[in-house]
Model the fold of this input.
Amino acid sequence: MHPPGSDVVVVRHGEIGVKSDQVRRKMETRLAGNVNSLLADRDVDGEVDRHRNRIFVHTDEPEAATAAATDAFGVVSASPAVTVEPTLEAIADALRDATEAHYDGGTFAVSARRAGEQDAHPFASTDIESEGGSAVWETIESMGSEAEVDLDDPDFELFVECREDEAYVFLEKRDGPGGMPLGTQRPVVAMVSGGIDSPVAAWQMMRRGCPIVPVYVDLGDYGGPDHQARAAATVADLARYAPSYDLDLRIVPGGDVVAELAEQTTDTRMLHLRRFVVAVGEAVARETGAVGVVTGEAIGQKSSQTSANLAVTDAAVELPVHRPCLTMDKTEVIEQARDIGTYEESTIDAGCNRVAPSFPETNADLETVRAVEPDDLFSRARVVAGEAEIVPIDTE
Ligand SMILES: Nc1ncnc2c1ncn2[C@@H]1O[C@H](COP(=O)(O)OP(=O)(O)OP(=O)(O)O)[C@@H](O)[C@H]1O
Done:
């Protein structure tokens, strides 16, 4: 919902604001670039402008530009707005127009804030609220409704942000993902299995600024083309958030190793497999300059993900294994997968075979696992990582 004549999107960021001036400038520049890429990728007209702790998108497509801006990591909220002169008269006019266009009954409130020099305007934000409130009141009455103010929980809220040279009037603050601008951290390798959890974990790392290098381990007879296609589809969903980053999927041929593990190991099988998977991730990280490996594991979600078993998995690699879903319940992960748009792809039936043994070890001890593990597991992880096929991701 936007006021008539909306010509700009006011974009707010959060944590960047507490950084030193130099870091903040760098991060804002990155954020502005990322918003620009999202607009271009979606064919939305818009000119991105940085100004005093805010990013503005000047556009004649306010809804589409707001949707693009609220997909940029680092954005806390964005509002499609109409720009007016910073005078009480011009602001009141815009509030009247917005009310006529969108008021649909119920209580209302006008919330105003002024930014910049305190003496830049001959009025205070409370003056905007009282004069603007009167204008809205009269408009509602002239529309044949009974006007009523509710400052705590209004049905219809109008916002004014008044700066030195311009004021903006808007009707909503649409949430962005928050976090930090993508590209302000070093990349991490994202192990994507095509399940529900791993795309959520990868997205969470992106949200904190890390570009991802997506990797799928082809499980051979235990995976199959549908399983692989599902992983690629979830990466395509993630790529929509990062149009200027390379999210091509590395498909690592792990089928022979998985088949051997299935044949030669029993209760500790899933631990060897997990250790192999993260070792593949570490090998890709070394090759690509990434500084960690991210997985979708959560404590206790599966037998291989008990706190004891995660410790055994971690011991396979030197780089940190990041697990943003670690303490989340499955229902929370599912909710988030739905929110970010990866849920549907990750629940397509891929009909793969079961690798897990009937009685998996849940309280593994590193020495015991090492004693029964193939000696060449990690050297093979490095070899197959080097043989990865790089598949371009189609976001259409
Ligand atoms: N074939 C694979 N290729 C790449 N990474 C994988 C693969 N299988 C598992 N992983 C990684 O290991 C983690 C744990 O694997 P597990 O098999 O328990 O999860 P899953 O149920 O298959 O998938 P998800 O955790 O995504 O729901 C995954 O979240 C993913 O990060």
Observations:
- The mean pLDDT is 93.
